Amino acid sequence: MAKILVTDGMDKSAVASLKGLGHDVIEEFFEPADLAKKVQEVDALVVRSATKVTADILDAAAKSGQLKVVIRAGVGIDNIDAKHADKRGIQVRNTPAASSSAVAELALAHMFALARFIPAANVTMRDGQWNKKAYKGIELAGKTLGLIGFGRIARSLAEKANALGMKVVYTDILGKFEGFDQYEYMEQDEILKTADFISLHIPYDKAVGPTITSREIGMMKDGAYLINCARGGVVEEKALVEALNSGKLSGAAVDVFEVEPTPNEDLVSCSNVSCTPHIGASTREAQARIGEEIVEIVKEYF
Hints:
Layout: E1 3-6, H1 12-20, E2 24-27, H2 32-38, E3 44-47, H3 55-64, E4 69-72, H4 82-87, E5 91-94, H5 100-115, H6 118-126, E6 144-148, H7 152-163, E7 167-171, E8 184-185, H8 188-194, E9 197-200, H9 214-219, E10 224-228, H10 237-246, E11 249-254, H11 265-268, E12 273-275, H12 284-301
Parallel strand pairs: 1-2, 1-3, 3-4, 4-5, 6-7, 6-9, 7-8, 9-10, 10-11, 11-12
Helix pairs in contact: 1-12, 2-3, 5-7
């Protein structure tokens, strides 16, 4: 049976299932230098976003040749050097479907929070203030939601937004998709110019850099809202803060950051920002589904 290292936590029922199958499950976080040693002793490595599986880690694993697969308990694999893993003969897998609804719901929750000043009102009321006149919000119904990227999470959000009476437009690197005629396909620049809310559903590519910079923000409607529950780095944070402070954007929701935990106090302290600490997939249901997918992946290999 396999020795499986879980560095960033995993659903208890999934751990129990793996142990029930006879696998040795080690649940412990390791700093990079220690992880480089530990991966030489295991057959599978399960990570979330905290652990960075770099080329150095993979090179260390290759010394013993024992590590067969790295499993990302979530969608994005940008914290894993997948290309280098392939060179080393180590497979990289993820759980793309398990957390779609959870992330989509968080994005929608942020949209409501921004539209109705919920974060700001919560803080000021705790300070004893009754700023009723200051919090005249907007309704999501009738507004245009622009989706940049149209994968599983974006489609889940589109369905929920459509049910609320929002007009949904989308763009994707693969072009227009069949079977989604209830939504309108647009080029990215057109979405930036027309959408009231823009939600990002794209990976981060270090070679390309941020997708949303001052240029893209400048194209957005005055008073629009930007939602990022995708990946830190796809939005240039400095440009975002400037747009929020100048009034170019009415608000922004940020669940993911360029550096995590984020040191960017200028961003998180903005009164028109709704921020969360990378909790898109952090629901009981999503974690249970992710755990189930991990168990199935392990069964394939061992």
